[in-house]
Amino acid sequence: MGSLKTLKLKLLKVGLNTCYQICYYVNRGRQQQITFATMRSTSLTDNLQAVYQTFERANTPNLKVSCYHYDHSFKSKLGFLWASLRALNTLSRSELFIVDDYFFPLYAINKQPQNKVVQLWHAVGTLKKFGLSLPGAEKSILKPHTNYDWVFINSEKNRSAYEQAFEIDSSRVLVTGAPMLDALLAQSPQTLVGPKCLLYSPTYRPGSDGEQQVLAYVQDFVTASQALTSDWEIYISLHPYLSLPTLNLPKNYHIFQDAQQVKALMPSMALFITDYSSLSLNFSYFERPILLLTPDYQDYLKKTGFYVDYYQAIGAPHFDAATQLVQFINQELSSLDLSYVSALKASTFAHQDRQNSQRVYDYLSHIIKSS
User: Shortest CA distance to 75 belongs to which of 309, 274, 243?
Assistant: First the structure.
């Protein structure tokens, strides 16, 4: 990291912490809000949405929502500082501050103990590394994923990964099941009629050239998939941190950037294609084919890495090139043994009582009453 960038980050850290401390002392004694906050979308989604709705059904007062969509575009960067300052003021007034992903301003401050922070990570399991497990994360000027008081996770087998990613004591990592899975468990696979539908969801790549890399893979997939011999409707979901591109696509191609739309589409999809997205775990519920398109596997393994032996953990057929994947769909998909999908479902859905959100709510309510 260059010396100028280091200086900027140090100054930003001091500035954000100063802002937070001033707000805290101005608001001292008024920490009564329960805030649900995200910087990955303009509205609450997935785990945050599920738990917020549970609090709302219980007629909980003083609920607050703080959303900002940061996508690395120039316009987004301009609004990011103001969004960070507003978020810190909101945090200073909050008894509980609940996030679902990386939340930059939170890592710049010396957090006051009266402001409790909860992490409801947006992914179901632990496949690719994240947080402080990533290479070089420990050396960051603003050390990521600090200041969490509690972390809620889907299953016991994920505990060690979260402890490592967030450097948090095991007693602060609570296994409740992922709240977002409650809604998924209420769904049934839709009967497939008409054109078959597939969903392609490449994941985020870090670094200055990460966005261009993902878009190049998307273009390769679009080009190759036009050789599909059956009638397909093709949906392409991009990570929320990417800028949504304008592409000239055939009429049966649909590109979007909306976590809610992904969940709505899943029951009607005949096939899910990804590289390293944890959405494969969600999709396994419907026991339909999952394929992996991983042209940069060795590079991704070196730069990001996994908590598991990735190919073995998913068990899905994997391909280095989109042309190979399309050939497989045309010739072998119909006879594919789906036992690997059934095994993935069994390991992912440890809690099937649709009470995951309620368990999180009950514990957070206990925290509020005890404070």
Answer: 243
pLDDT for residue 355 is more than 80: yes
Which of residues 4 and 106 earns the better pLDDT score? 106
3-state secondary structure of 197: strand
Residues 246 and 243: their CA atoms lie apart, in Å, by 10
Q: Which two tokens stand for residue 310?
A: 């990735």
Give the contacts of 309 (CB within 8 A, at least 6 positions apart): none
Q: What angle do CA 155, 161, 162 make, to 5 degrees?
A: 75
Paired tokens of 121: 């990570």
Q: d(Cα 194, Cα 176) in Å, to the nearest integer?
A: 39
In the predicted structure, residue 1 carries a pLDDT above the cut 60: no
Q: What is the mean pLDDT of residues 188-198?
A: 82
Q: Nearest to residue 141, comparing CAs of 306, 276, 333, 7?
A: 7
Q: Give me the DSSP letters along 23-92.
A: HHHHSTT---EEEEEESEESS--HHHHHHHHHHHHTT-SSEEEEEEE--S-HHHHHHHHHHHHHHHHHHH
217 contacts: CB under 8 Å, gap ≥ 6? 202, 275, 293, 295, 322
Spatial CA neighbour of 176 closest among 160, 158, 193: 158
Beta-bridge partner residues of 236: 200, 255
Encoded tokens for 111: 């957090």
pLDDT digits (tens, 9 = 90+) for 248-260: 888 999 999 888 8
Angstrom distance (rounded) from CA 308 to CA 37: 30
Model pTM?
Answer: 0.89
Neighbours of 111 (CB within 10 A): 20
